[in-house]
Each structure stands twice: as C-alpha cells, then as structure tokens.
Amino acid sequence: MARSGTEGRGVLEGAFALMEVLAEGEEVGLTRLAGDAELPKATAHRLLGQLVALGAVQSRSGRYRLGARAFRLGQAWHPARALRAASARPLRELASANGRLSLSLSVAEAGRTIVVAGLRGEVDDVFPLRSGLVLPPGSAAELILAASAPAGDPPEGRTAAAWAREVAQARERGLAFEYGQCVSTLSCVSAPILSASGQVVAAVAATALDPRQIAPLGESVSRAAAMISANLSRRPAAAARPHRESPARPPGPRAPHPVLAGPHP
User: Fold this and answer.
1) Contacts of 249 (CB under 8 A, 6+ apart)
2) Longest Cα pair distance anywhere in the chain, in angstroms?
3) Which residues lie below 8 Å from residue 53, measured CB to CB, with a gap of 6+?
4) Which residue stretches of 147-205 are H helix?
5) β-strand partners of 106
C-alpha cells in the first residue's frame, strides 16, 4: 500500500528533529534523544538506524552523534560558504589584535539565529560557539539581524516594548551589546554584515568572559564587519556549471529509496 504524503512528511520531520538534537554537538543516548526530539522511542530507534545507514548519523556503543555526511552537506550550505570565505581574514585580524576572544558569524534562518563561522577562544570552554549552533534568544547577533527585519515577536524574557527599544538602539548605533542576558557568564558585541545591495545578511560578534572588554571592542567589530561586507560584495557570481550528459538508462520503474522509508503495513 502506498504511503500518504502526510506520513512521508512526518518521517522527514522526525528525522530532522533527531538531527536538530544531535546538532547540539554531544553524543546522546536513545532515551534522551527520543525525548528531546519528542518522538516515541521505537520511532526514534528506527529513524536513527536509517540515518546511520545514510552516513548522516554515527552510532557508537548505543550513543549517537552527527555523521560526516551531515557535516559535509552542512558546510556546503550556500550562504555559509560565501560568508566563511569573506570573513576568514577579517576574523583572523580581529582575533590577533584582541587576544582570546571568541568570534562568531551568524545568520537568521527560520526565526532562529544560527552560527555559520567563527574562531574559537576563551568562551568556548564555557559555551562552544561552533558552526551550526542556534544562539539563545535575545543575543546581540539577533538584535542586529532584527534591526533590519520587520518587527517580530520578542524573545522569551523580553517584553515587546523593551525588545523594540533594544532593536531601535542597535539600528541607530550599528552595534548591539549584550551583558549576560543570554548566558549569565558571557558578554558580547555584534555588528551587521551587508550585501552589495546594502541588505543586512549576517552579524559578526565578539564574545568575552570579562564584560569590561566589550564596550571598547565596538569599533574593532564594526571595522571587521565592514571588511567582511566589502569582501562579500567583491565575490563574483558563481559560474553556471556545465551540463553533464548522463549515460542512457533503459526505461523501467524506479525502486523506492530504501532509507527513510517508513514501515510497510
């Protein structure tokens, strides 16, 4: 019996829910993984087996983590690839001038603020700012991205009026500061990265353990953001790939993909 489109979407949503949990970076056991993904344990186990077969997830001694294939595909995400290339030198220069700061580059995606590049520093011992991390609501990077977007709902813990004031200040200054509101031991400053058309496409942030470091960093972070924006504007448009002829195949029905297929009735 053919499976309905609704059931197919449910399978994919379940698989993505598991991978979202694994994207937190830890090796996770089945019970916790199923609970965090809000899936029945049997369903989580079946989907994990299929994801392991695809190479998207690795399994070791009953614990799971993202696989190399998922990492490779994530690294190829187009906005991240362009931003990483444009930010490599400015971030290195910012880091070399400011000790062990943690630097991150973030974009808005589906209502969340996601780290796509950066350089490790002292903060990573407390809160690893790795690529793929979803930043806590109300971060300085989120303020920068919100300042260029239509007004939305405030993050948890902020009233609409307070969030609107913070967004307006970030827009006026071209900088956003955050002192322990997201992670109590961390403070950060963020600035916008612009496309060639002047649209805010990302935010660069410097994060430190000592809040006294943050205010003096504003000018340096703004300068790094301007350099990344200039590099991004100079990047040539990707050339079209030549069409490659595929060898002729005999006609015939295509077998269903064996992975990520649900159980058959």
Assistant:
1) none
2) 69
3) 259
4) 160-173
5) 115, 203
